[in-house]
Predict the 3D structure of the following.
Amino acid sequence: MLIKNGKIYTMAGKVYEKGDILIEDGKIKEIREEIKGNYEKVIDAKGATIIPGMIDAHCHLGLFEGGKGFEGSDGNEMTDPITPHVRAIDGIYPMDEYFEKAVEAGVTTVMTGPGSANVIGGQFLAMKTYGRSVDDMALLEVGAMKIAFGENPKRVYNSKGKMPMTRMATAALLRQTLIEAKNYKAKKEAAEKKEEAFDINIKMESLIPVLDKKIPLKAHCHRADDILTAIRIAKEFDLKLTLDHCTEGHLIPEYVKESKAPAIVGPTMSFNSKIELNNKSFETPAVLMREGVKVAIMTDHPVIEIQYLPICAGLAAKNGNLTFEEALSTITINAAEILGLSHRVGSLEVGKDADIVIIDGNPFDLYRNTLYTIINGEVVYKG
């Protein structure tokens, strides 16, 4: 497939005012100002904007289905505050209508997983947004371990009359579990060295990739003190961390920068439904980015419907005085780098997945239309 004559934002340091992209076997084979030759399929993108497929770095797509109520709600196992062993891949329904809405909007990759009811909520999944089987759509079957601070675990377990009812208890349960996981790992390694039998504990097994820094803790933290607690615990145990929501990050940007943890900001285009959202601001991404923090923007779907991801980035650009490419980076290359997927998605470069969106204008414009969404070199939406 050849895409020609479009304005290409590669998000890899180069913009083609008029350029061509050649796709072969689902990958980007070539990008130049002009590519000559005869090709099986040609898309003339004259007058259109070409960008990488957009990425939502934190959502619950497929786990909270539209219009299904309890039957379609599979994102929070609210029976135990410690559930590291539950996996998003086992709860996602790819036929949920919002996958189609994501594709139509140009959102081609998501990190989706459990909600924030539990102190440790379970394993997030990185996946493409088009397909019938989540196994085929998956990029990372286990991409992060969800943890949560603040109001949500307090509210859920206060209603059950059990720990945690306070922020202190939330942190204490997380520390206790991480210590148990460290002890379990040491015992397992000692048993393996001696070639002795060892009883597998699925909860503890699920935390070994966290301890080995293969996946990050994905920390739900809105308020400044919760952000700092997440940073504190990650530092104590020498763990990778992403600060998800980071709602009051603009109040403590120097501490976020010092932590070296990236921020996944949002959902800002939503109602202040609880106290810890009172300082929510569309300026947060810009404040953090100017401090040197790597920032992505999220919808937290279904809190904000996933098709409005580019609108969220546009509002952040407007309110924070971000450039077009700075704003676009928060839902493309920055998101890909934070999720550990930049070798495949997030920018238009030779060898990467051919996840490409062709738009009849500015992607942040309410009046724009998606002309084509291409995933893995296949046209999956045509406007």
